[in-house]
Design goal:
The chain is α+β, with helices and mostly antiparallel strands. It contains nine helices and 13 strands. The chain has a single domain, classed as 4-Layer Sandwich (Glutamine Phosphoribosylpyrophosphate, subunit 1, domain 1). An eight-stranded mixed beta sheet has the order 4-3-2-6-5-1-11-12. The termini are far apart. Bound molecules: N-hydroxy-L-asparagine. N-hydroxy-L-asparagine binds next to strand 8.
Amino acid sequence: MASRRNFIKVASLASVGAFASSSCKTENPTKTKSQGKAVKPIVISTWKNGINANKKAWEILSNSGRALDAVEQGVMVVEADPNDMSVGYGGRPDRDGFVTLDASIMDETGNAGSVCALQHIMHPISVARKVMEVTPHVMLAGDGALQFALEKGFEKMNLLTEKAKKEWEEWKKTSKYEPVINIENHDTIGMLAIDSNGNISGSCTTSGLAYKMHGRVGDSPIIGAGMFVDNEVGGAVATGMGELVMKTLGSFLVVELMRQGRTPQEAVEEAILRIVKKIPDYKKFQIGYLALDKNGNVGAYSLHKGFNYAKYAENKSALIDADYYLKG
Ligand code: SD4
């Protein structure tokens, strides 16, 4: 029992190794809260890998495409990238060596779909969209999700790359973790987009915590935790230690705060403060929130330094450092 508890503890610390850090153009997000003319279309996504994802999404948005297509096809770029070791193909496995994926998607009508603990499918976001569009359900898990994906024509493949396998084999030698925040240049992707019709959609996709317990599901596929949109208000996505986001239902909280009149920046800051208030060991972990209101105003905030996001609007792509809570 003691060793199992110990595993859970150290595994939870491991996740924080999966964060990005990169220096880039710094923009104070609070300055982006101009309430003037609505910015649309617009797409934002978490971390540096969002740049390529946004490029794909922008192709769709700038041709009057639907935000839902943009947030699906945008994150598919990262799912297919073996160099992103936190998402899709090439993702780090769980402690037993299985790559298990979580994803969620939501459209402007409030429709939602998700999959969790899905194996062998490169594009869990597209399976989540199918769950949303052709089933009466919101979420399919594990073998049931795989069975559904195969029925819908998705191809079964091995997602564990040699590189990820080698790292996992190395990890198994010690099974030790240190809480290092933001040490890597890639992470889970969450994306929010508004199309030229002013409609918003969101997506989130991940292989979750590296070396997690088999069967562990994070915040990313939980509607309202890792991602939430409401076409009347805006949307939010989360990245980081999913357990903290799940305990505070972070993305839903951000959207509800915006509904009550907070700017996206005020809303994400409040959601981080909620974690600070409710979760005693919050300092060990990173959490980043990204929010977009219906006018295209952006908010971004994290617990620790190092969270960034990509934005594509008015034909310009940018990578922006988020403000953060733990200073000095
Ligand atoms: C999870 N939130 O599974 C995801 C992981 C993540 O940056 O976002 N890592 O907990």
